[in-house]
Amino acid sequence: MKKAFLYLLLISVSTFNAYAQDCGTAFLGTKTLYKAPLAKYTPAPKGYRPVFINHVGRHGARHLTKDVNTTAIYVILLKADSAGMLTEKGRLLKQMVLNLQKVEKGNSKSISAEGRTELQQIGDRMYRNYSNVFAGHPKLKVTITKEVRTKQSADAFLSGLKAGLKDSAQITEANDDVNLRFYDESAAYIAYKDGDDWGKYKAIVAKAEHIDEINKNIIAKFFNPEFVKVQDKKWVDKVVSDIWGFATIVYSLKEEISQKDLKLKDLDFTQFFSCDELKALGRVDAVEDFLVKGPGIKPNGIQVSIAAPLLANFITTSDDFIKTGAISANLRFAHAETISPFAALLGIKGADKVSPDINQFDANWQASNVAPLSSNIQWIFYKKGGRQVTLSGYY
Predict the structure, then answer these.
(1) Mean pLDDT, range 4-28, rounded to an integer
(2) pLDDT by residue (tens digit) across 166-191?
(3) Residues 6 or more apart whose Cβ sits within 8 Å of residue 9
């Protein structure tokens, strides 16, 4: 009897672990939530005080960039269900997608509550760390892109900053797609991004990770064989890509999920993947960022050099402050496509290493460290008397 009970207990534990697997969050890449830096920076030399900040940050944690009901997986699930072609897991997936639609309706392209908190806390820390910059009646210049999530991010950041300012600052806001969306301004880069040169390197990693086999195995969980056999590889890849996108976005939506009287398990898309599958799909997702937004395989690639306008803007505005002292802080809010190449161009540790062997790209470059949600780069200027020294930080 005792043996039978122990056997049943082992089965129960195994079943629970299979459902409640904890694979960590390393697979999230650029969807990784922001974490405040723990490192203690070298203090400024004695007698120096902060006087100016040049800043660029990525928008906060966000919702999906398009409505759930416009995705391929949404349409396919409804069609397959109507035809009686969904498995039990397929019906569970369909319900999760409908749950996600409920959470995301009317929120596409916006930052989430998590994103607002991230930016508020960064703004608050900036004030507490460099309060001298904001003494008196500081003048702040805020620039954003055409995307609403950068406006929302700027507002959230300023709400954290203003807690210390008490409405004493003069703030001007403007759009600056030229310097912040430089990747849209370069014909050479657009040709590179839309071409197939980098795709062949991504394919090498995909092959090493057995992605085709993984995708087929995942699809087989949701649809009856007769439904799958008439589909092509492109269809399979698209379906998995959509499910993967849902799995990674949920981490940014905890408060919104709760507001809809749902629980995290009601949108736990990761349960459809093993930890090894999450890791493999995460690597393939990250290598595309590495090749398209990061240092890639060759030094001085177009995907890094396109950030030169933003660097020139940082230098020009820094020179303007030294000459006039008119602006206390330049605060820019943009995208991962802005942060990653700019960090590489600046030679920031962990952001600028090329990888001649593409299968080793993540030995020195991690998307989750280079451009997580709310990632930011700050140049802090200090002054002692008539002398100035610049310290830079990547937070």
Answers:
(1) 54
(2) 778 899 999 999 999 999 999 999 99
(3) none
Distance CA 70, CA 376 (A): 32
Q: Is the dihedral of CA 186, 282, 238, 297 positive or negative?
A: positive
The pLDDT assigned to 352 comes to 96
Is the per-residue pLDDT at 18 higher than 70? no
pLDDT (mean) for 220-224: 97
Q: What local confidence, expressed as pLDDT, does residue 39 receive? A: 75
pLDDT (0 to 100) of residue 166: 73
At 155, the amino acid letter reads: D
How many helices (H) and strands (E) in the chain?
17, 6
The CB density around residue 68, as the number of other CB atoms within 10 Å, is 21
Burial of 180 (0-12, 13-18, 19+ CB in 10 A): buried
C-beta neighbour count of 309 within 10 angstroms: 17
140/155 Cα distance (integer angstroms): 13
Residue 181 neighbours by CB distance under 10 Å: 20
Q: How much is the average pLDDT of 346-354?
A: 95
Q: Which is nearest to 328 in space by CA: 161, 164, 170?
A: 170
Give the chain's radius of gyration (CA, Å). 24
- In sequence order, the 6+-apart residues with CB closer than 8 A to the CB of 376 are 55, 56, 57, 58, 122, 339, 394, 395
Contacts of 49 (CB under 8 A, 6+ apart): 132, 382, 383, 384
Supply the DSSP string of 37-88, one letter for each residue: --PPPPPPPTT-EEEEEEEEEE--SB--SS-GGGSHHHHHHHHHHHTT-B-H
| Contact assessment for residue 318 and residue 379, using Cβ atoms and an 8 Å cutoff | yes
Residue 62: strand pairing partners: 111
Strand 139-144 with 376-384, pairing:
unpaired
Sign of CA dihedral 231, 233, 236, 238: negative
DSSP character at residue 142: E
Residue 2: pLDDT band with limits 50, 70, 90 = very low
The alpha carbon of residue 5 and the mean position of all alpha carbons in its chain are separated, in whole angstroms, by: 47
Compute the distance between CA of residue 395 and CA of residue 142 in angstroms, rounded to an integer: 19
